[in-house]
């Protein structure tokens, strides 16, 4: 990813065969998104965004995009939501330094060990989140990408969420990662805080 200056991009993997939805995506998002082949998804593809500021994803055209994806029945398979993934790439500019990024990874590890990450990520079984569970330290792209958080050249990738075409859930997933980043700059997260508890509730409500 070429993210810089506190930008974010994302990818949604889907098992649905490619259709004219690519034209819809192209026009609805002002050329900010495109489709690409995804080898891990049988007969499917990824919907990928260019790097952008997070506030761009709150514009009306993205609400329309997710409505269009839903109307196109993007997830035709019974388990498509749970086996496909929603991946976010956050520019390294979001982090004060590598230690800050490691604190985020450490918090993800705690959430996983507490048995909450499957719930937050909408992975219905622990087996599914095994592909994206946290590691003791952040691994780089060459070591392993199939983990909750990994390091790339200019970004950190978060890949523990299941796919979604629910716009509210999509924005909540992005906001949750921002919450982790903002609340680990100096100290660990307070898991009894009202904000964290509300995130858990809202993310579960928008399955």
Task: Give the proportion of residues in helices.
Answer: 25-40%
Spans where pLDDT lies below 50 across 5 or more residues: none
Radius of gyration, whole Å: 16 Å
Largest sheet: 7 strands, mixed
Q: Class by helix and strand content?
A: alpha+beta
Alpha-carbon distance between the termini? 28 Å
What share of the residues does DSSP label as strand, in percent? 15-25%
Count of helix runs: 8
Net shape: globular
N to C succession of SSEs: EHEEHHEHHHEEEHH
Mean pLDDT across all residues, rounded? Answer: 82
The largest sheet has its strands arranged as: 2-3-1-4-7-6-5
Number of strands: 7
Q: How would you sum up this structure, described in words?
A:
This protein has 207 residues and is of the alpha+beta class. Helices cover 37% and strands 18% of the residues. It has a seven-stranded mixed β-sheet with strand order 2-3-1-4-7-6-5. Strand 6 and strand 7 form a beta hairpin. Helix 1 packs antiparallel against helix 2. The longest helix has 16 residues.
Offer a concise description of the structure.
This protein is α+β, with helices and mostly antiparallel strands and 207 residues long. Helices cover 37% and strands 18% of the residues.
